[in-house]
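Suppose you are handed only these lines of text.
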Amino acid sequence: MLDNFEKLWKDALFEIEPNVSKANFSTWFKDTYISKYEDGVVTINVPNDFVKEWLSTKYYKFVISSLRNLNPSIRHADYLIVSKPPQINQPEKKQYFKQQGNNEEQLGFQELNTDTEANLNPRYTFDSFVVASFNEVAHSAAIAVSKSIGNLYNPLFIYGGVGLGKTHLLQAIGNETKKNNPATKVQYLTSEKFANDYVLSIQNKNIHLFKEKYRKYNLLIVDDIQFFSDKLKIQEEFFHIFNALYDGNNQIIFSSDKPPQYIVGLEDRLKSRFEGGMMVDISQPSLEERMAILRVKMQQRGYLISDEIIDFIAKNIKENIRELEGALNSVIGQSKIRGRILNLIDVEEILKRKIKPIRVITADSVIKIIANYYNIEEKKINEKTRRQEIVKPRQIAMYLLRNDLNTSYPYIGRRLGQKDHTTAIHAYKKITCDIKNDKKLEQEINNIREIISKN
Ligand code: ADP
Ligand code: MG
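From them, the structure of the protein bound to magnesium ion can be written out as follows.
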């Protein structure tokens, strides 16, 4: 017999919670409850499609095993989407913000405790990192590496556009490693800092100290290695450090805004070292994922914001998570300054400055960006050749001109090497089909889109 649904779910959540990060727990289990039990099937009500999808795939095992532990007659869990009651006629819910505590002060205090030796900021942990499909692979690789540094994926290479969580993940690996094993010698730095250190050591004539210092780490994390581009002397020095660390089974982790093969001016031997480990990407979050991130961030700051406002911010701030945080901070800051709860009109006005006006993007600028991205001369893209390094960028250009700019096939054909419109149609169909099976290609195209949107 099973009649106290509330208690059952509470007990189940109690078991699930320690297995899931805090951020994920509140994202996926908030506003869920059991509404029915019949013939071994429990029905769990969830607030939206997105939560349903995640609970029924990623967390199904956790949910069902914790329920079964509590009641062995349960065989299966079903999910039912129940949207929340409309907020209009509920005065107490009409509030857009409600301060819930002083989490912010706590964060501020933590910031002061940055581990200056390892250069790690305690704010960046796995616990405060929201996982969804756009960053799931990178997140699980990061977790795996932090559990077994030097043994599993070495090096680990995380790439993706700006503001999407690369630094956060890199730092989280460092923090987790330090927490589990404080004796580990961890160092986080950007490639620019590495370059500056090197130049300084030459000036001070103590390059031997520089070499020694970097060879002693068990975990070396180098962020944004795209800045190594064209700095050949530094790359050479880094190559030797890399080999020394690697041969000693020490872990090396990198991030970059693009995969190694597209970093212009990066030596081949470094590229092949980077590619020899595990490469994972972070892509763009979808609308639902942006909303979920906003919800978590809002809770972390101890504020409540209406769904309407969350929806508005997520629909308008699409670039990346840093921008989302920025928008949320402006909204919270303004609410404090004005000393009142903000409504949608206030928020629209505050964010107006942050939302980019629609610009006209020309075919010429798209082609230029693509040529640049694949490191080929712009006029080469029109060349009559079957060489893959030319054909691929050209087909991507044709695809983007058609798909994103709605340019006519005859124009695309003419603009890209006096080709027939059927060539443009073929390229469009080919890329459309290829991205379905090739995640890397999809990511490249999204990277290009991001560059285009920022130009
Ligand atoms: P990147 O290094 O890729 O440019 P960052 O790691 O600096 O991006 O992330 C930008 C901001 O967004 C940081 O404040 C970070 O904490 C936050 N952020 C990024 N991804 C997530 C995530 N999945 N969950 C929570 N916060 C995130
Ligand atoms: Mg970064």
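What can we learn from it? Residues 128-130, 135, 162-168, 293, 321-322, 325 surround adenosine-5'-diphosphate (ligand 1) (CB under 6 Å). The chain has a mean pLDDT of 86.
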